[in-house]
Amino acid sequence: MDRGVWRIGGAGLALLCLILVWCGPLRAQTALPPPATELAVARWTGAEEPALWQVLSGAAASGFAEVEDGRLVPTARREVGWWRLVALRDIAPHNAPQLVLTPPHRKRVELWRPGDSEPLARAIYGRDADYSHSTRFLVFPLPQGLRRGDALYLRMIAADVVPAQVSILPGQEVYRGDIVYVAVRTFVLTVLGLIALLAFGLWIGLRERGYVFLGLTLATQMLAMAIEGGEMRAWLELGPLALDRRMDIILNTAAVVASLRFFSLFLRLRDLQPTAARLLDGCCVLLGGLIAVTIFKTWRYSGSFGNLVLLAAIAVVLYAIGAAVWRRQREGVFLLVAWSPLIVSLVALVGAYQRWWPMYRWLEFAYPSSLAFSGLALLFGLTSRLRQLRHDRDRAQHRASYDALTGVLARTALEEALAAAVGRAQRSGEALSVLFLDIDHFKRINDEHGHRAGDEALRIVALRARNRLRPGDLCGRYGGDEMVAVLIGARLDEALRVAEHMRLALNDHPLSIEGRLIPIALSLGVAELRPGESGEQLLRRADAALYASKSAGRDRVTADRAALGAVPAAGAA
Ligand SMILES: Nc1nc2c(ncn2[C@@H]2O[C@H](COP(=O)(O)OP(=O)(O)OP(=O)(O)O)[C@@H](O)[C@H]2O)c(=O)[nH]1
């Protein structure tokens, strides 16, 4: 893919990720029904709230002005707004028409129907909550239907300035919609909660901090969605909390902080882009301060301050993601996959909200579903990164444990494995022997045929030595042209036989390297483990036996004298 596309994609994703986390009000747009074509909407434009009798008697009619797009836009937080809805056609009562208002969050609405002496009050939380419906809409039944020209009056107090929309739907459609709404919301919130739980579980199990921030991002998002969507209304005491602006600021800011921390860890900014990491740390400190202050008090500029810091964070994240995608960092691709559905759903929502295209039914659940998908994709991304880290670590460990040239154990790993094997043998009383082998006059091979031929000779000797061992035995390069084989369960006589076979295998078959036949001979020293002896002592005795082989003229096998005395090899020179 073209690099420019990657950069732009990554940048857009980061921006949207943060905006999505932040912009709670936009989420509330998810449940907008089609505009009410059967109602003419007008808003009260007077400076003062009109008296009830003035509204209901029609004396205040001149104070209402028609709203073209039919939307109910609160002018200011907590300000009382009056709206008049006039039926443009007869609405028959036979299919139980219901006036629905959405989004319902943070709105308390009173409806005066023709002939009512008391208003019908609805809200998601509190004493006006209507538990016979889901929280998809505020629902007002119109059992008598409406006659063309009938006026309904709405008195709305909104804790935010999110526009609302009214519509008239048949009762059956409202109930069916309720069932689907509850099912989908429950599913999505459960999935979000489960992914958050899984992320916390993985954090506890794997100690990878990225998981805890992913979990926190999802958990705060889930909580904010459930409070905002009204799923928490079963807990009556949550009512005031849910309507409190502080809750909104705290939850959304916490989600932003957690997602910034996640970003930083996921993109490995501390190692790869330390300046960006420091700037994001600064943003997190400021937002953390905002949360701490908001717990006690909000002031007029709380929101603006949060947004300002958020903008700075967005700029940093944009830059960081751009740089990551530019470097083809794997995590960039995961972000792309994770956030794409969110972008699509957000663009589709905004477009529908702006009336560029219809408010399709699926849009109602697009945002929460894509959020759940993103969480899952990021969880997968983190897990995949962890797998990669483990793979790298295993490879590094393998590189450290095995000799790169010969493929047998490197010295340190050999000594460790020998110590462990000796410990086991001492405990079980099982036999164990060690062969120390060295190529005779190896320097000459290097001098006469070159270093590359010398390397190849080492490789072949190691291979042939290994081929003489059993699967559980150990073979390692001790240094230069010296190698060690550890024969588990072998007594000295058996070890001597193996050593002799090794020597002959090389003696009888000169090495074929780069088209030349290079004769080669081995000297070996053999020792069997004594009770109470350490691996180090055993090696020392085998080394001494090897030294004896060299001193005696090379190309031979010598057993540790202290045990058996020198054993001249059958074919010794
Ligand atoms: N090609 C190659 N040579 C190596 C490597 N490691 C060590 N050597 C060479 O191996 C030779 C080892 O020499 P020594 O063990 O001291 O002596 P030798 O020539 O084998 O003679 P004896 O052991 O006394 O029979 C040195 O010339 C080292 O430079 C290696 O990885 N590759």
Secondary-structure blueprint:
Blueprint: H1 3-22, H2 24-27, E1 39-44, H3 52-57, E2 64-66, E3 71-72, E4 80-87, E5 97-102, E6 107-112, E7 120-122, E8 138-141, E9 151-158, E10 164-170, H4 171-206, H5 209-229, H6 238-243, H7 245-266, H8 269-272, H9 274-296, H10 302-326, H11 330-353, H12 363-401, H13 411-428, E11 432-439, H14 442-449, H15 451-467, E12 474-479, E13 482-488, H16 492-507, E14 511-513, E15 516-518, E16 522-528, H17 535-551, E17 557-559
Parallel strand pairs: 16-17
Antiparallel strand pairs: 1-2, 1-4, 3-10, 4-9, 5-8, 5-10, 6-7, 6-9, 11-13, 11-16, 12-13, 14-15
3D architecture notes:
Among the domains are: 178 residues, no CATH class; 149 residues, Alpha-Beta Plaits (2-Layer Sandwich). Helices cover 53% and strands 16% of the residues. The chain is built from 17 helices and 17 strands. The chain has a six-stranded antiparallel sheet, with no helix packed on it. Strands 12-13-11-16-17 form a five-stranded mixed sheet, sandwiched between helices. Strands 3-10-5-8 form a four-stranded antiparallel sheet. Strand 12 and strand 13 form a beta hairpin. It is rod-shaped and about 125 Å long. The chain binds guanosine-5'-triphosphate. The site of guanosine-5'-triphosphate (GTP) has 16 residues, from strand 11, helix 14 and helix 15.
